[in-house]
Structures are given as structure tokens and as C-alpha cells.
Amino acid sequence: MRSDRSQAPLTIASASGNVFAFVWANELPSAFDGPAWARVLCAKGSGLGLDGLFCLHVPESGMPWVMDHWDADGAFTFCSNGSRAALALEGAPISEFVEAISSGVSIRLRRFTDDPNPCAGIRMPEGPGFGLKALPIQLTGQAAFGFVGNPQLVVEVLDVDAVDLTVFAPPLRNHAAFPEGTNVNILQPTGKGTARIRSWERGVEGETLCCGTGCAVAAAWMAKRTGIASWRLEPRGGDPVDVLVKLNDDGSWQELWLSGRVRIVAAVVPDASLGLV
Questions:
Q1: Phi then psi for 133, rounded to 5 degrees?
Q2: Are residues 119 and 147 in the same domain?
Q3: How far out from the chain centre does Cα 168 lie?
Q4: What is the pTM of this model?
Q5: How far is 8 from 199, CA to CA, in rounded Å?
Q6: Model confidence over 143-173: pLDDT tens digits?
Q7: Residue 99 within a domain
């Protein structure tokens, strides 16, 4: 790791279409401000247009790997796709399974060493408080709500391409039934264990190419409805994600795994004009 902190290098990595900046805690200037950096770096037009910012702590033997994430609006949140994309970085733990704490949430990461393409999985947080919940709003048609470290609304539609998410999603994302807001996902089942999905994410306040937590909740809901435990979802980004779940009778889950492609995109040093260093 670098000892000169006058400039903080960023690694840009993606997971199934979501793109994040990663920094190492021991390379940051003492004035590092995660929320402020996220708002600057993730801004569209004046920044890099990213989905979020991660600060990674150097792994310690025998201890969970600690990472923190901020949304584009600076909110401190759990993010599944970015957490698994971190496995693609140089300096990440090299074992197949990695215990981690991501934004205060306990997870498990998996590196698929036998896959010719870089692929990583994440076991979603589980236990009290996590799972499918009672739908707090009345909607026409099939819908579900779940909490997986962040809130997720899933609405079934006939054709995901026919929905204007800029009109459909914001009233639901900000509805009074969701005091903390919610991500909004539209789902189109296409076959046995397959579906298409599009996601509008709070914090980003727009459509992203893949919401990993949204995919996980959508698949858990479909598992409850159909009895099929394994799902392949096609998000907007093109890279499919695979979800495997063991669902309990009360809507909670065990071993809710999501996996898919991860990529290193670039290594950059932010320009001094951004005021980050």
C-alpha cells in the first residue's frame, strides 16, 4: 500500500452492471469524508457517474473484512453488488469464502475460482429483521416487500420494457408507507426459474443497471410463490445474476446467495480540482 496520502488512488470496479469506486482506508488523507466524496465522485456530469463509493479496510487475519459504502447522495448504506465486486480488487482476501462486515452488516463473500470469468457471490444478511415482510401499501397486481439491509419493493409487470420507471418509481420510492423510502423493482417472470428485472434505487435516485439486493428479494418472493429455490434474473446491465435461497415459513431466509460477474474497470487518481485531497 502507498505511504503518500497526498493523492488517493481509486479503483473502479463493477458487478453485473453496477459501477463503484473503491479506496483503501490506509491510503486516504486524514480529512477523508465518505459522504462528501461519494456525492462528488458519483455525480453525473461533474463526477464519474458512479453508483456508490466504498472504503475498504486492510484485511486482518482471523477477522471479518470490513468495508463501508456510501450511496451517490452520501447516505451510508449496505450494498450487495459493490460488496462482492470488492473481491476483484488487488489486496482483497484470496480465500474462496470471506467473512465480511459491509456497512455494519454481516455477510459472506464467495470467490468462484473455477469460473473462467471473474465471478463473485454474496450471502445476504439473515436473521431477525431480514426477510419478506407484509406489504405496507395496496397495489394493483402482484407485489412484495422485503428488507435485506435496505428496503425493497418488487412489483410484477407484464413487460419491464413497457414501463416508464421515471414516472412509475418515484411516487412509490417516496410513499409515506415507506418511512425510510424504498428501492423499487419491476419484475417480469419469463420461464421456470427465470425473470427480467429493472430497478430504481434510492440514493442514486434513478434506474441502475442492476440492484443486487433487489434481485435477491425478488427471487426470494418468487421462491415463496413457486417453490423454485434457484433463479436466474436478467437485469438491465445484461450480465445475469443467479440467486439461490432457502426460505422459512415466516418469510425469513437462510443462505440467500446472489452471484454474477465482477470486473475491474480502471484505476484513477481524482483531479485536485474536485477538492477531495
A1: -120, 170
A2: no
A3: 21
A4: 0.91
A5: 31
A6: 999 999 999 999 999 999 999 999 999 999 9
A7: yes
